[in-house]
Specification:
By secondary structure, the protein is α/β, with parallel strands linked by helices. Helices cover 12% and strands 19% of the residues. The structure holds 2-acetamido-2-deoxy-beta-D-glucopyranose (NAG) (12 copies).
Length: 496
């Protein structure tokens, strides 16, 4: 339906904004204190609980490893590893089958690193070895283990409860396997964890509250699983977190404002879930945030102005939400490092932002599938010397394509389909745009002849001109590309 031809507008009509169209984006005040700290009474209760909590935590710290040490030795490390070995159904030609043998110390086995001081197994790294198996409960006996990396294999089954005994573990990488069952609550007892990745498994259940206990976490990656429910606001207690990746799950509810209180955050990925509600102003204020992936959710409201003020942001993807409102005219003013900006498939309206030249390192801009009303394509986009991808299709843009766009030495895709654009294509259009691979202007009101000189765009692979008012002889690939060799034009996908 969206490709339906609309009535042409006057080609030279230029949209003039009125006072009513001025950006009126609102943003909320940041919370100053969480509710539980607002009344003095609650404050003292909170302190008491905190003291008890620290006491229990320290008991745990001093006693648990000692208990473990008295129970386990290098021999029990060996039997834990042999239990793992026998869970893996190895063939004779598998590396581990012969290497993991009783004839040498486990410290010489492939994938094992021992601790110089205690002579115990401190790292187990079997990543990328094509292994199949389950995690046996004995693995929980590796009480000196600091790093466990089983990533990118075919381990499956549930995460053995006994792993909660790995109190020294700092890195747990179980990504890219077939682990199933629920995200275990006991993760919250691995209080030294700095890196936790369960990415790309088939884990379900919810994000356990206990995760907020892991105050040393720097990376938390639960992406590409089947996790449901909401994000607990206690996640805001992970004050050292740099990477938070919950992308591609079944999470819903609103994005808790507390996340945006973690000032160390550099990467937030919540894409491909069912989050709803507004994006709060705190998000834009994160001082280290570089990457923000919120695409494919049900977010509503307007983008808080603070986001456009965040000079660390490099990559913003808000594609495919229900966001609306106007964008600031001077959109690049604070986004000094922005490289990729994708606001496509939303309901932004008003005039398309016109001041682009300050986005000096922008490589990809996608504003397609929105409702910008009237207005022409801002000519200063042509000043972006690093821009490679420009998608403005399915809007209500009017007027001609500014010639500055054909002066972009790095541009590879120019996609302007389904607008109210008009004018004709100039013979010189391909003289200064050497990298152009895709030129899509279908469903507009262009007229005149299609210049043969389009063939001067020698990298063009996709040319889509359908549903315009071009005149003249019917064109063939041969007509347009008379000088090109067959091999270099073979991929050209022509729609005339
Ligand atoms: C955000 O962090 C500050 C300082 O760490 C704290 O005082 C405030 O209560 C936190 N706000 C929320 C909403 O968690
Ligand atoms: C196992 O592999 C390691 C590292 O390649 C090697 O040093 C060791 O000698 C091997 N052990 C056996 C028993 O093959
Ligand atoms: C290796 O040693 C363990 C005990 O340390 C023993 O149970 C096991 O049978 C031995 N395996 C082989 C193949 O000798
Ligand atoms: C495990 O080994 C792989 C390949 O040798 C390496 O890329 C990876 O960084 C190691 N993991 C850890 C946690 O050191
Ligand atoms: C290792 O773990 C298993 C299963 O959790 C347990 O039955 C066994 O007693 C432990 N062995 C040692 C030597 O700690
Ligand atoms: C965890 O494993 C994945 C997949 O093998 C890898 O890409 C990633 O770099 C690993 N993380 C660390 C910290 O080694
Ligand atoms: C946090 O850790 C402490 C000590 O490890 C534990 O007693 C407590 O139950 C944990 N809290 C949560 C919410 O898991
Ligand atoms: C969400 O944003 C819209 C428009 O930006 C605003 O009218 C509404 O009050 C906001 N809702 C909440 C719950 O903050
Ligand atoms: C943007 O940043 C400037 C300077 O840091 C600050 O004065 C201004 O209040 C910020 N505006 C918004 C909307 O956050
Ligand atoms: C933003 O996300 C959408 C949906 O996943 C994806 O198709 C698009 O390539 C992303 N944009 C950028 C600039 O990476
Ligand atoms: C944009 O480029 C044009 C032509 O190269 C130049 O005249 C103009 O000053 C530039 N504008 C800005 C704001 O840099
Ligand atoms: C541009 O195209 C015209 C007509 O197809 C051709 O004669 C001319 O040689 C081409 N110029 C370049 C630089 O490829």
């Amino acid at each position: 339906m969206y490709l339906a031809k609309r009535m042409p507008r006057d080609c030279f009509y230029l949209y003039k904004g009125t006072a009513h169209d001025a950006p009126s984006i609102q943003f909320q005040l940041p919370y100053s204190l969480p509710w539980y700290l607002r009344s003095p009474k609650r404050l003292s209760m909170a302190r008491l609980f905190f003291a008890i909590f620290v006491f229990i935590l320290s008991l745990h710290y001093f006693m648990a490893p000692n208990l473990a040490m008295s129970r386990t030795t290098l021999t029990s490390d060996q039997s834990a590893l042999l239990a793992l070995k026998s869970s893996m159904n190895l063939n004779n030609h598998d590396l581990l089958a012969n290497n993991w043998s009783n004839s040498t110390s486990v410290c010489n086995w492939i994938g094992i690193t021992c601790d110089a001081r205690h002579g115990r197994v401190k790292a187990l790294n079997l990543s990328n070895m094509g292994l199949t198996g389950i995690i046996p409960p004995e693995l929980g006996n590796l009480s000196f283990l600091a790093k466990l990396d089983l990533s990118n294999n075919n381990f499956h089954g549930e995460l053995a409860n006994e792993l909660h005994q790995l109190l020294r573990v700092e890195l747990l990488n179980l990504s890219y396997n077939g682990f199933s069952g629920e995200i275990p609550i006991w993760l919250g007892s691995l209080s030294k964890l700095q890196y936790l990745s369960l990415q790309n498994n088939i884990l379900g259940g919810f994000i356990p509250l206990s995760i907020s206990n892991l105050s040393k976490l720097v990376t938390l990656d639960l992406s590409s699983n089947h996790i449901g429910g909401t994000i607990p606001s206690e996640i805001g207690q992970l004050w050292q977190l740099k990477t938070l990746n919950f992308g591609i799950n079944k999470l819903s509810g609103s994005i808790p404002a507390e996340i945006f209180n973690i000032s160390s955050l550099e990467v937030v990925n919540l894409a491909y879930n069912s989050f709803s509600g507004n994006i709060t102003a705190e998000l834009g204020a994160l001082p280290q945030l570089r990457i923000m992936m919120l695409q494919n959710n049900f977010l509503t409201g307007s983008i808080p102005l603070t986001m456009f003020n965040n000079s660390m942001l490099q990559d913003i993807n808000l594609s495919n939400n229900n966001l609306s409102g106007n964008l600031p005219t001077n959109i690049c003013y604070g986004l000094l490092k922005i490289e990729q900006l994708d606001l496509s498939i939303n309901d932004f309206s008003g005039q398309m932002p016109s001041n682009w030249h300050e986005c000096r390192v922008l490589t990809s801009l996608n504003l397609s599938y929105n409702s910008f009303n009237g207005g022409s394509i801002p000519s200063d986009i042509g000043n972006l010397t690093t821009l490679q991808y420009l998608y403005l299709g399915m809007n209500n843009l009017q007027g001609e394509i500014p010639f500055s766009l054909f002066n972009m030495s790095s541009l590879r895709v120019l996609s302007l389909f389904s607008n109210n654009l008009c004018g004709s294509l100039l013979k010189e259009m391909c003289h200064h745009i050497p990298q152009l691979e895709e030129f899509t202007i279908s469903y507009n009101f262009f007229e005149g002849n299609i210049p043969r000189q389009i063939g001067n765009c020698t990298f063009l692979e996709k040319l889509s001109l359908v549903h315009n008012s071009f005149t003249g002889t019917p064109y063939t690939r041969k007509y347009i590309l008379p000088t090109k060799s067959v091999s270099s034009s073979i991929n050209l996908f022509l729609l005339l």
